[in-house]
Structure formats: C-alpha cells, structure tokens
Amino acid sequence: MIRFLTSQGGGARGTETCSCSPAEDINAGAAAPIVIENDVFVEMEALILKCVTIGEGAVVGAGSVVTQDVPSRTVVAGNPATVVREL
Q1: Where in the chain does DSSP place strands (E)?
Q2: pLDDT tens per residue, range 7-18
Q3: Beta-carbon neighbour count of residue 64 at 10 Å?
Q4: pTM for this structure?
Q5: Which of 3, 28, 29, 31 could join 7 in a cystine, given CB atoms 3.0 to 4.6 angstroms apart?
Q6: pLDDT digits over 41-62, tens only?
Q7: Quick check: helix, strand or coil at residue 73?
Q8: What is the DSSP string of 35-54?
C-alpha cells in the first residue's frame, strides 16, 4: 500500500499547480498535487506528502516518508526521505 496525502481528506488532484514551497505549508490543510513522473518505483508502505514531485526513474524505498521533491534517477529512503544513491 502506498499513501498519498494531498489534503486532510485525501484524494489526488493532478491538474493543480503547486504553491507550496516552505516546509511549514505541508500541513496547511489545502489540497495540493503529487506528481510522479515516468519509470518511478515506489516501494511498499511509502508515504508521499502533498506538493511533491518524484523525478523520472527515481526509486522510493519501503516505508519512506517523502516530504520534498525527489530528483530524477536517484534512490531515496528514510523518514524523512533523503537521497541514498544516484542511478
């Protein structure tokens, strides 16, 4: 199971533009999109917060909490998710 947190009630909205920038906006309550580009692998129990873009070819480790954008062709893991390796 992968959880996407886009608002207090959940539900993805892929057509909106993201206005979040500082970390304190993550819990503001308004819905915001999550963008997952091509060839991304998201492992089990990962949590992806709103206003995050996961770059092309990235890997998100199991149980990771993604709070920031993930660069293309990298492996991220942990809570909060950090870059472990470049591919």
Answers
A1: 3-5, 35-36, 41-42, 47-49, 53-54, 59-60, 65-66, 74-77, 82-86
A2: 554 444 443 445
A3: 24
A4: 0.73
A5: 31
A6: 999 999 999 889 999 999 999 9
A7: coil
A8: EE-TT-EE-TT-EEETT-EE
